[in-house]
């Protein structure tokens, strides 16, 4: 699913984002990836995308449309504001630092 999301985001002008491999527990005990396993941790990918405020809703929709299977474990999207962003290389701040 991650490669599908990456391709659709790139096609829509978002070629760069961070991906973290994480593990979650406690909320999806019936998740199919836990069958025949002794651990209750579920491996997941966490994406982190920095974007201008006006692009957030579009990015959320892209991820929803691409990742939705209708099964438990499709994921959660959360959006929050960044108070300050500074690009170290050139000192650009906020939205200018995104390019």
Give a quick set of tags describing it.
Alpha-Beta Plaits; 2 helices; 2 strands; 22% helix
Describe this structure in words.
The protein is α+β, with helices and mostly antiparallel strands. The chain has a single domain (2-98), classed as Alpha-Beta Plaits (2-Layer Sandwich). It is built from two helices and two strands, in the order αββα. The protein has helices spanning 2-11, 56-67, and strands spanning 18-24, 42-48. Strands 1-2 form a two-stranded antiparallel ribbon. α1 packs across α2. The chain is globular and about 45 Å long.
Number of H/I helices: 2
Beta percentage is 5-15%
Low-confidence stretches: none
The percentage helix is: 10-25%
- Report the top-level CATH class: Alpha Beta
Which of globular, elongated, flat, extended, rod-shaped describes the shape? globular
Number of domains: 1
Radius of gyration: 16 Å
The beta-strand count equals 2
Named CATH topology: Alpha-Beta Plaits
Sequence-ordered SSE layout with sheet pairings:
Layout: H1 2-11, E1 18-24, E2 42-48, H2 56-67
Antiparallel strand pairs: 1-2
Helix pairs in contact: 1-2
In short:
This protein is of the alpha+beta class. The chain is 22% helix and 14% strand. Strands 1-2 form a two-stranded antiparallel ribbon.
């Amino acid at each position: 699913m991650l490669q599908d999301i990456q391709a659709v985001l790139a096609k829509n002008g978002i070629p760069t984002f961070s991906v973290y491999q994480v593990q979650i527990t406690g909320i999806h005990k019936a998740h199919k990836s836990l069958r025949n396993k002794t651990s209750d941790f579920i491996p997941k990918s966490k994406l982190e995308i920095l974007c201008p405020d006006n692009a957030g809703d579009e990015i959320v929709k892209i991820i929803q449309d691409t990742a939705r299977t209708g099964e438990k474990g499709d994921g959660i999207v959360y959006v929050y504001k960044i108070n300050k962003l500074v690009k170290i290389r050139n000192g650009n701040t906020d939205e200018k630092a995104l390019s």
